Each structure stands twice: as C-alpha cells, then as structure tokens.
Amino acid sequence: MKYALLTTALAGTTLAAGAADFKLPQFDTTRLPNGLTVMLMERHEVPLIAVRAVVKAGAVNDGTQAGLANLTGDAILLGSTRHNKAAIDEAFDFRGAVLAGGSATEQTTVQANFAKKDADALLPLFAEIVQQPSFDAAELDKLRTRKVSGLKQAKESPRQVAGLYYRSMLYGDAPYASPAPGTVSALSALRRDDVQGFHQRWFRPDNAAIIVVGDFDPAAMRQRIEALFGQWRADGTAAQPHADYGKPVADKPRVWLVDKPDAIETTFVIGGAGIARNDPDYVPLQVLNTVLGGRFTSWLNDELRVNSGLTYGANSSFGTLGQSGTFAMSSFTASAKTQAALELALKTYDRLWSRGIDKATLDSAKAYVKGQFPPRFETSEQLASLLGDMYALGVERSQIDNFMRDVDGLTPARAAQLVERHFPRKNLQMVLIGKAADIRPIAAKYGDVTELDISADGFKPARSKPTQ
Predict the structure, then answer these.
(1) Which of 128, 274, 440, 465, by CA, is between 20 and 30 Å from 393?
(2) Residues 197-222: pLDDT tens digits?
(3) SS3 372
C-alpha cells in the first residue's frame, strides 16, 4: 500500500444510547507520497458529501501585508486555469451544491458540499481551484475593492471591530495581532503577484489536508483523491510555521479608548489571557464560561440586560488559537451609562471568586453544555470542519471523545481551581469604543489609557505612549 497510515480506523459511535455515549465517528487518516494528508469519514445516513481542503496558513502569515491570506482565501474561488469563475459557479449552482472558501487566523480553507451522485462532476473542479487557481486579474480587482469598502463600513459599527482592536491590544506586534480582514492601506496595496506568491508559498501538499465526510466507499474515494491530488507538487522546502505566534501581554491594567465622535453608545471588551484550543482544560472551561456569559441565562446577561436594562446583551468567551488565546467579556451600553455598565460587569465577573459556582448552578450549566454538544457535529459539513480544526490546530481526538466525561467530572471544588488558573483577575485589559470626550474620565479609572481614532487606518494606536 502506497500510503503511510497515520491513524487507523478509529472506532467510535454517534449519539445513540445517550449523551454519555457520544464518540467521534470512525475516520481514517493517511498521507500520500507527496505529503498530502487525507482524512476520510464515512457517513451513510444521507447521500451527501462534504469535502474540505485545509491549509496551515492564515493571518499569522501575512507579515506586513495584512489581509493577504484573507484575500487569497476568497480569490481561490475566482476560477481555475481551466475553468473560469462563471463556469465553476454554474457547475455547482446547477446541481444545488455549495462552494465556499476563506481564511482565518491560522488556516485557509476551501469547502464544497454536494450530493453523492455529483461527486464525479464536482470533485475535479474542486481539485482544480485548490491547486491551480487562476486569480483572474479583473475579478481579483473587484474582490479587493469590495473588501476595502467592507473594512471602511465595519468601523461604522463598533461591535464588528471591537474584537480586532482587542486582539491587537493583547498581542502587540506578534503575528496573532494581525487582523484577518487586513487594513485599508495594506489591502489596497495588494496585487495579483502577492496573492499568487502567498498561494505558492503555503498551498502545497505537505502543508495541507483534504477532508472528505459523507456517503462514499472509502477505498474508491481514496483512489479518487490520489488521482486528483497525487500529482500536486511544490518547489523547494516547505515554509515553516512560526515557533511562537505570540502570547497575550497583560502586565498592567490598560485601556484602549477608541474615539468615535458621533457614537451614542459605548462598546466594551474586558479580559486578558485565555487558553489554546488544545488546552486540556478546554472542555470544563466551556461549562464555567456558560455560567458567566455563555448563554442567555448567564450571570452577565442576567445582570446587564435582564435585571438592570443597561444593554440588550452581554457575553463572555474564550478566544482559542493554536498556541494561546484570550478571554473576553463584551457588551455595549448608552454613553451616559458607560460607568454603570462597566462597574456591574466587573462586579458580576468577581462573583467567580467572591461567591464561586454552587452545585445547582454548575449542574444546570453542565446539562446545557451536554445538550448543545452533539448537535454541533451532526452534519457531514460540521464534522469536516471539526476534522479541519484537529488538523490545523492540533486538537486531539480525546478532547471530543472524553467531552461528556470531562463535563460530568466537574465539581464546584474543581471549578474553583479552574477559575483561579484560567480566568484573569488582575491587570485586566479593556477596549472602549465610543465618544472619547464623554468617557475619557471613566476610562482613566481602569488603567493606563491609550487613545485611538476609529477613522484611522488599522487597529493599532498611531503612537504607543499612554495618555497621562
């Protein structure tokens, strides 16, 4: 057999007898002679197939050309060297199939969903655009123009960009700070040669995986994938990922005050360092975050929306990446109520330490998380996405298979330990987007303030000297 077997048929069952029996379905992982990873998962419930190409490259690889990975990920769909965009779109649309692409922080993906009977017609087109995209100049110019316009419009809605400022604040000049959508100036300067260069550097078989989930014969599909991708070659040695994409910096309380002079609301993000996607405590932390701000009946939403009426919603989350991550609470409120909302958010957050999480509250969150978990992996498309994260971010199968066990094993005492270990309590970092003239004195109460102008390009301050 010409494949190097990495993971043999891993036994598993879907949710059948009960939540406690959930296991990731069986799948095979092999590697072709050219270095391409192939992951195949059979699912015969419906005659559908989801296929996904995952490349280990994203915004962290943009360097000084912010938005390059994002533009490349979307531009892949503009046609191949053999078929233009119109022909490919027609082939997929005619069959009711879906073709999509895009880039995130650490991975770029191309995905397609189609009926089993259409695999012979659509898989070759999928293979073409992954390996031989045309990057048609006229189409690329239109795509770039739309993206630049989108960036400008996004700053009119602070909730769309608050996370980009927050990531930039915590990661500084590290690769993780690079904004995936780019900046207006950097994106405007990108040309076809830049996109082609990114594709040539990173889209190579030894840096990619082809994932197929659905109704197919595994032996026949493996042969089909080898025929379509086995001749994929790349010149030279593969570019190596950065050994350290960055860790959040939170050595003192800081506030980034982003001035939007016409704002009548203040959008805020508060938090600090979090965890990586493959952290062993990832699962129990989903339960604890559910209590704090991960569902409609969470503490934050109850206090800031239901009980006080300060906002229409408040939440918290761990933003997990391959090597590190962030934790954030976020909401928005009328400018005049900024201080009240911030104080209530921080008071509610402190309950994790001052009162802890009692058994009844914990049990409720555990039941909620267990009920939400299996539906996340019901469809072939969802499972293909999960396998893509496992490949690109180093997520272990055990994290999925042991999910129910790790949730059930969480006790109030264990919860207190995890709160102490992973939820930042000191040196909180804060992004405030609003009318600076009104909220400047409030911002100064929470740390060293750095002011930014939301109309300025990008998501970093023009100067790093804090406001005195």
Answers:
(1) 128
(2) 999 999 999 999 999 999 999 999 99
(3) helix
